[in-house]
Amino acid sequence: MSARKKILALVAVALAVSVSPVWAQYAFQSFNGPNSSGGTTPNGINNNGQIVGFSVANGVNTNWWRNPNGTFNILNLPAGSFANGINTTPTVVGQNGATAFSYTGTTLTTLPNVNTTTTSQLAFGINDSGWIVGQYADSNTGTSPGLDRKSVV
Asked: Which of 5, 27, 51, 78 is found 20 to 30 A from 117 (Cα to Cα)?
């Protein structure tokens, strides 16, 4: 084997040893949300490590965000709501029935319909600039196109 091939082989081995697979860079942690006898569903995470989601017990949702230290903030949302996304404010977005909402502090804001033929809206995420991403259904076209809007909060 030539000197050049030996050097290339050594470089290839060194690179293979020094590059960790993506999964090895993360430590997954299991947790249960409050009132979670029926399950816990984390839906989003912000840059501060706060996780938003909901737990179910006896058919009732408890919406929350989980802080990096493991404590929970219970969200005072209407029955049937689902907390889906969170930014660093923290503003939470989600859905209640056929309506999308944003929730900051103690203020719940129902997002306005996209148009007059909107039959339902869901908010999935919000970034730190207040842009909300989601989905809506339109009775006129029967489609469910994507939705993004600057937050009204």
From this structure: 78
Side chain identity at residue 67, one-letter code = N
pLDDT for res 21: 64
61-96 residues labelled b (16+ CB within 10 A) or e (exposed): bbbbbbeeeeebeebebeeebbbbbbbebbbbbbbb
* Percent of the chain residues topping a pLDDT of 70: 81
The phi and psi torsions of 41 (rounded to 5 degrees) equal -125, 100
- CA–CA separation, 72 vs 1, rounded Å? 62
Question: What does the block give as tokens for 146?
Answer: 């994507």
Q: Which of 41, 42, 40, 44 is nearest to 133 (CA)?
A: 44
Sequence-separated (6 or more) residues with CB below 8 Å from residue 24: none
Please tell me the least confidently modeled range out of 51-55, 104-108, 149-153.
Answer: 149-153
Distance CA 139, CA 133 (A): 20
Give this prediction's pTM. Answer: 0.79
Secondary structure of residue 150 in the 3-state scheme: strand
